[in-house]
Amino acid sequence: MDKLLEILNEIDDSIDYEAEQALIDDQILDSFGVITLVSEIEEAYDIELEAACIVPENFNSTQAMWAMIQKKIEEK
Amino acid sequence: MAYHTTLFLFVFLPLALICYHFAPQKWRGYVLIGFSYLFFWMNSKELLAYLIGTTLLTHHIGIWLDGLTIKEANAEAEEKKQIKKQRKRVLLLGIVILLGVLISMKYQNFIGLNASRVAEHFSIRYSFDPVAIVLPLGISFYTLQAIGYMVDVYWKKIEADYSLEKTALFLSFFPQIMEGPICRYSDTADTLYKKSPLKLENLQHGSLRIVWGLFKKIVIADRLAVVVKTVFDSYADYHGIIIVVAALAYTIQLYMEFSGAIDMVIGTGVMFGVKLPENFRQPFFAENASGFWRRWHITLGVWFKEYIFYPVSVSKIVKKWNRYGRKNVGKYWTKIVTSAVALFPVWLCNGIWHGPRWSYIFYGMYYFTLIMIGILLEPIRKKVLQTLHINPKQLWYRALQFVKLMVIVITGELFFRADSLRIGVRMFRSIFQDFQPSILFDGNLLNLGIDNLDFMVILVGCMIVLLVDLMKEKKVALTEKLEHWRLPIRWSVYYGLILAVIIFGAYGEGYQVIDLIYAGF
Which of chain A's residues have a Cβ under 8 Å away from the Cβ of B335? Predict the structure, then answer.
């Protein structure tokens, strides 16, 4: 989880990621932020995220991202 | 028959509401499909066959994909791979057929004529005779919805719908078939299939939204249409600031018309208890071109983002580049190249989607270039703001952003409205010939087809819309607020709006009936 927060803060450190629950729905994180995040997560956790994974439910909060990462690691 | 016509508002819609209301609940879906097909038939006659064909194909592909998903879940590893490939082929089959129909109908002449020009250039014997083609109503809208549905089933975001009635209603629902919004199955399916009984509250809210849309369309947009037509039809007679006035008039006309039509669409949906997605969110309050497109024709932007931008961004080749780029050229250039690769098809498709014209392709490329410049300069912009201690939320900075955005949007709309790219370039150049702002005040504007009263009505109308947009931007729930006002005030607003449409509507002598612009796309 710390690694994920580190990645997120590198993209934009002005956001309180632990508190935000609607990063996509409230457009706090834009589509460029999302694609940067996807490639950083893939490299950091050695997983593959397809276009189907890019839905607001998976990126609205750090908890949701973490759950998606865990699921992808299990599926490997 | 469009949404702003008396036939729709006073005959078709009331009849649809009455039949829907008195039908047993299980038949309500069929009533809506019946009226949707009737609406389609009244506009496109036997071309209804295309919509029915698309519905049957989309429905069948969805079920096929779903069947393969179930098979995949129970298969061994090796068989899984085969099924995955089969699923991809099934999806491709659906997309190729739907896009094939769209391309052959909408772009056949454009492709043929350009191919013949290229052939001529290389002295190859090939000639193309344009074919007279009438497009089925809303083909550009329902094709995207159908593709979105199939891809979502393929991606397992949603389960396929086994009810043909539901698929048919999702693709044909008459309030949105003509101008969108382009709905995602996951967004609209629930309310669309609820078949909830008519409610007085919904009828009130829906009618208010329809009248608001009519106000924007008939009072403001149709008046501005006269100015726009006068200048754009005889572009060679005008230059300097008059071209700017015409481009500004078209920008406002398009916003009032399209957002007004969407108000009517959403209002009609509300009457049936159906919640359709919003297509506009005060676009002129955006900070830049990219933000503008997140607020203008939202559902088209979302479609391109989900089905083109993200898939390209996470494609194997882009991922490879990301890994290579980060190690070898740094994060900044990696992001620039990735953004360019993912945004290029988005903006190319955005341009082409509007129609088979080079000026539309130019329009898409214009925004692609501007957005890429924005991404390229973003670190410099941040540095300048930091060094000079500028708060981007300060009023003067926001005002500068607004002026810059208006210049960008108005220039874009000039090319978008011009009859061809060549004419667009000529009109743009002529802005800089004999540019005299004094013309604005010497009565020349009154030679553009409308009089002083029309200008006053447009001005007051725009101020009212601006006020409402400002309140929406401040997240004021206007409809709910209105409900809590005292009865006389509330009804004064309702009647005021209706009377404004009746008294100041641009119809009758001296005005032409203006078709909905986006219905032509």
Answer: 32, 36
Token reading at B350? 């955005």
B-chain CB neighbours of A31 within 8 Å are 305, 309-310
Chain B nearest-CA residue for A33: B335
pLDDT of B521: 67
Residues in chain A: 76
Measured CA to CA, the distance from residue B110 to residue B96 in angstroms comes to 19
B156 touches chain A (CB under 8 A): yes
- Is A32 within 8 Å of B323 when comparing Cβ atoms? no
Of B69, B70, B79, B76, the C-alpha closest to B154 is: B69
Contact A8, A62 (CB under 8 A): yes
Pick the residue from chain A with its C-alpha nearest to B308: A51
Tell if the CB–CB gap between B314 and A55 is shorter than 8 Å.
no
Q: How many CB pairs under 8 A join A and B?
A: 42
A51 touches chain B (CB under 8 A): yes
- pLDDT tens, position by position, B194-226: 888 999 999 999 999 999 999 999 999 999 999
| Mean of pLDDT values over A30-46 | 86
> Over the stretch A39-63, which tens digit does the pLDDT of each residue have?
889 888 989 888 888 888 899 999 9
Which domains, from first to last, does chain A contain? 2-75 (1.10.1200.10)
Distance CA(B200)–CA(B204), nearest Å, equals 6
CA A51 to chain B, closest CA, distance in angstroms equals: 5
Identify the residue whose tokens are 């043909």: B164
B273 contacts B32 by C-beta, under 8 angstroms: no
Which residue positions in chain B have pLDDT lower than 70? 508-514, 519-521
Give the separation between CA A3 and CA B89, rounded to whole angstroms: 38
Q: What angle do CA B156, B62, B307 make, to 5 degrees?
A: 55
B72: CB partners within 8 A, 6+ apart: B80, B83, B84, B87
Contact residues on chain B for A58, CB-CB shorter than 8 A: none
Cα(B457)–Cα(B222) distance, rounded to whole angstroms?
Answer: 12
Question: Which pLDDT belongs to residue B487?
Answer: 83
* Distance separating alpha carbons of residues B368 and A38, to the nearest angstrom: 22
**Which of B303, B310, B327, B393 would best serve as a mutation to test chain A binding (most A beta carbons within 10 A)?**
B310
Q: How far apart are CA B503 and CA B372, in angstroms?
A: 46
- As a whole number of angstroms, the distance between CA A8 and CA A59 comes to 11
Question: Average per-residue pLDDT in chain B?
Answer: 91
3-state secondary structure B93-148: HHHHHHHHHHHHHHHHHHHHHHHHHHHHHCCCCCCCCCCCCCCCCCHHHHHHHHHH
